[in-house]
Structure formats: structure tokens, C-alpha cells
Automatic annotation (TrEMBL):
Name of protein: Alcohol dehydrogenase catalytic domain-containing protein
Keywords assigned: Metal-binding, Oxidoreductase, Zinc
Cofactor: Zn(2+)
Gene Ontology terms for molecular function: oxidoreductase activity; zinc ion binding
Coiled coil: none
Domain Alcohol dehydrogenase-like C-terminal: start-end pairs: 182-308
Source organism of this protein record: Cutibacterium porci
Residues annotated as transmembrane: none
Domain Alcohol dehydrogenase-like N-terminal: 27-133
């Protein structure tokens, strides 16, 4: 008799249900993780509502921000220890395409993503495929930590990748972050930790502004952002502007907030097919550098796990709710309704 487990499965666009799947046993080269927490992000919402379909496979178990513990090892797996806390780097890349060879595995032309095309962490157990295990996608925690903190390794790794792409932050620089969701708050903590002079966070929800203020940010609502930036920079503009909400009008607005020679990161994904009007001369005359940031490499996940292990990031101000897997609908509604900030699911409950 095969044992079954509940799993949050995508049947098709906009069609998600809690289904029974067999409890996995690891085949050769595979590793089974016991999932202890999986946090939900905006991309999950777009998959669940049917807005996002590319790279997503019907029948897949969702969930890509995964904190687990190594439960069992298939034949031939070496270097991993049963019982260790671990997360997964979700980008399963080919290793041989030009992007991979150039150290940009997250832009691999043949990659599959755990929680999108491959089964993810919204189930009590996750079987990590052999090709991911052999490429080192399972990343053990350096020290034991709360599962809700380890689950932030995936979003934090994306933030670290974006941080690398925009050239980081220099001590004393002024940083503007637009959006105070989990991603904006992770950018806030990172920039404060890196010695930014001022971090100005723009967010419409008062409770999120309060969280950012407690992290050391100057906060404002969207209506006063340009005044606040002008006031804090003597009208010069910000050295770095990070867009952490995918709204097309922010493309132009972010350029206007930057200082001459400044950097602008369009970190958030914009809705599919979005277009924006920008004044290209702002980039030209102000000599701005615009970068993107999408996904992360295994190296970024390693750094994220190390930072989380040292408690450089405080998860308690970001992960506000934990639901059992059977309450997944409430969890999704909480994300949609901006209740709290980051919502976690503990599939053991
Ligand atoms: Zn995510
Ligand atoms: Zn590749």
C-alpha cells in the first residue's frame, strides 16, 4: 500500500486544489526533504489565479520558498546528512548553455524551476530530482534556525542577486525603496546592514511603513515620495532607487528620483506585456544605470542561508502568519488582502 500526502497541486490555469499524492521515496541520486515551512509570494498568487502560465506545469505541486530537513537519501547521494535543515536553490539549470557557462545559471535557457515546472514545497515531503541534487541545489543550513527564517532564503537570494546586479550600496549612500512588502523589507534590512546613509521606503500601508521604520528606514506614502527624497538629498536625488512593486508607471518615476550618475533597479516583475513611457534622455543626461534582477544563483542562496544563520535578517518582522496546509485558501486570501507581510504554510499541520 502506498502512503499518500496532501499537496497543493496546480491542475491548470486558475485551477488549484489540495490533492493526494504518493509520499515520495528517493530513487537513485534523489533526496527527500521533510518540509517545515513554505512561504508564499506574489508569483504564487499569479500562478494560482492563472495569470502566470509560462514555465508552469499542470500537475505540479506549488511552493518555491522552502525550508525543509533532509529526510532520506537515494542511492549514491554523498555529502548530505539526514536530519540537517536545508533549503533548495530552485533554479535547476543545465550547466552547459552559454548563460550557465557565463556564471548566469539563473538565466539558463533550459532551466526548470522547483515549484513551477518541478514539484515544490506545498506538501509535507519534497523529492528533489537527481540532476538538482548532483548540481548542489540542496543547500544545508549552517546553523539550526526557525523554519520561517530559512524559508526566506529564496526571496533573500533574489534580493542578493539584484543587489549584485545594481552594484550593491556604498557606505553613506541614499537608497529609495518603492514597495514595503517582503521584498522591499528584505532590501531595507540589507541596505541598512550594508551601511547605507539613508534608506527611504515608500509604501501605502501604514503597518508596513512601521515595520520599515523599526528597521531604520525613513518612510513615506506614495503621494509624498518625491518631496521626501528631495528634502533628504537637498534636491540632488537618490544614489540608488529600487523598484519593488511591479507597476509600469514606476519605470519613469524611479528614473526621476535618481541622482545624477545614480543606479535604478527594476527589481520587481511587471505584469506580462506591460509597457511604459519613459524619457530616455533622463538616462542619457543623468548618466543613470538601470538594472534588473530576476531569480538567483546557487551562490546567492548559499550567501542568503549564511546571512539567515547569523540572524543578519530578522524574519519576525517579515513573516507575520503561519497557516496549516489545509488552510491554504485562507493563506492565499491573506497574501491577496495584504494581511501582514509574508505568509507561511507549515505543511505538517
Ligand atoms: Zn517567490
Ligand atoms: Zn544552462
Amino acid at each position: 500500500m502506498t502512503h499518500t500526502m496532501p499537496a497543493l497541486v496546480l491542475n491548470g490555469p486558475g485551477d488549484v486544489q489540495l490533492a493526494e499524492k504518493p509520499v515520495p521515496t528517493p530513487g537513485p541520486g534523489e533526496v527527500v526533504l521533510a518540509v517545515e515551512a513554505t512561504t508564499i509570494c506574489g508569483t504564487d498568487l499569479r500562478i494560482i489565479s492563472g495569470e502566470k502560465t509560462t514555465g508552469v506545469r499542470p500537475g505540479v505541486t506549488l511552493g518555491h520558498e522552502i525550508a525543509g530537513r533532509i529526510a532520506s537519501l537515494g542511492d549514491g547521494v554523498e555529502g548530505l546528512t539526514v536530519g540537517r535543515q536545508a533549503t533548495v536553490s530552485i533554479v535547476v539549470s543545465c550547466g552547459i548553455c552559454r548563460a550557465c557557462l557565463a556564471g548566469q545559471e539563473h538565466l539558463c535557457s533550459h532551466c526548470e524551476l522547483i515549484g513551477y515546472g518541478l514539484d515544490g514545497g506545498l506538501a509535507p515531503w519534497l523529492c528533489v530530482p537527481a540532476r538538482a541534487v548532483s548540481r548542489g541545489n540542496i543547500i544545508p543550513a549552517t546553523t539550526e534556525m526557525p523554519a520561517t527564517r530559512l524559508a526566506l532564503a529564496e526571496p533573500l537570494s533574489c534580493v542578493l542577486n539584484g543587489h549584485r546586479r545594481h552594484g550593491g550600496v556604498n557606505p553613506g549612500e541614499t537608497v529609495v525603496i518603492i514597495g514595503g512588502g517582503a521584498i522591499g523589507l528584505l532590501h531595507t534590512q540589507l541596505n541598512v546592514a550594508c551601511g547605507a546613509g539613508k534608506v527611504i521606503l515608500c509604501e501605502k500601508h501604514a503597518d508596513r511603513r512601521e515595520r520599515a521604520a523599526a528597521m531604520g528606514a525613513i518612510t513615506t506614502g506614495p503621494d509624498h515620495l518625491s518631496e521626501v527624497v528631495a528634502e533628504h538629498t537637498d534636491g540632488y536625488g537618490a544614489d540608488l532607487v529600487i523598484v519593488a512593486i511591479g507597476r509600469h508607471e514606476l519605470a519613469e518615476e524611479s528614473l526621476d528620483l535618481a541622482a545624477p550618475g545614480g543606479r535604478v533597479s527594476w527589481f520587481a516583475g511587471f505584469p506580462k506585456g506591460s509597457t511604459a513611457t519613459i524619457t530616455p534622455n533622463t538616462v542619457h543626461y543623468q548618466e543613470l544605470t538601470v538594472s534588473g534582477g530576476s531569480n538567483a544563483r546557487r551562490a546567492d542562496v548559499h550567501r542568503a542561508v549564511d546571512m539567515l544563520g547569523r540572524a543578519d535578517i530578522d524574519e519576525t518582522s517579515i513573516v507575520t502568519h503561519v497557516f496549516g496546509l489545509s488552510h491554504w485558501k485562507e493563506a492565499v486570501e491573506a497574501v491577496r488582502g495584504h494581511a501582514g507581510v509574508k505568509i507561511a504554510i507549515d505543511p505538517r499541520r
